[in-house]
Design a protein that fits this description.
rod-shaped, alpha+beta, 13% strand
Amino acid sequence: MTENEVLFQISNIVNGSAPFPQAVDQIALLLEREASGKAIFIDHPDSPDVVKLLDSFDHPYRSFYSVKAGDQKLTLAFGSDRFQGAFHQRLADFVGEQLGMLLARTRLAERRAQLKREIAEIEEDLATRKLMQRTEGILIARRGMETAAARRWIAQQSQKTGLSKNDVADRIIAYYQATALLEQRIA
């Protein structure tokens, strides 16, 4: 495989749908297969074992590249005897850049998913509050209850029936809507 083909394959892996750890493994396999060397990724590159690890590579060329995104740091250690010239440095730089972009995209996707969950929770909380306020308003208007008494009554009905407060509120609203329709027809 030529230099450009190796770089193209790495780009395809990074831009594919594989999650970050799987993409890292695929790139390591590609580097080992196509660069006749050894490639490993280290989660904590500040370890003194990294230098020993690089020294253990039985290849004339060794490179070391770190990628940091947020609080996560990943290091590529690569050794090869097949490629000559500046290719191995370009390869290490390219892999590092590609992994940096993938790591950043992964972090953004995780943050986006977290924000979507938070928005869903807020929307659910808002819907529950609106439902409770509407139910309390009906109980205040129809039964002459105070706000606190209406809340207690909803909670008591929930405990009595084993239904959630939302289900009790839905039934109260449905009952009073049906009653209001019936009163309109009679009048």
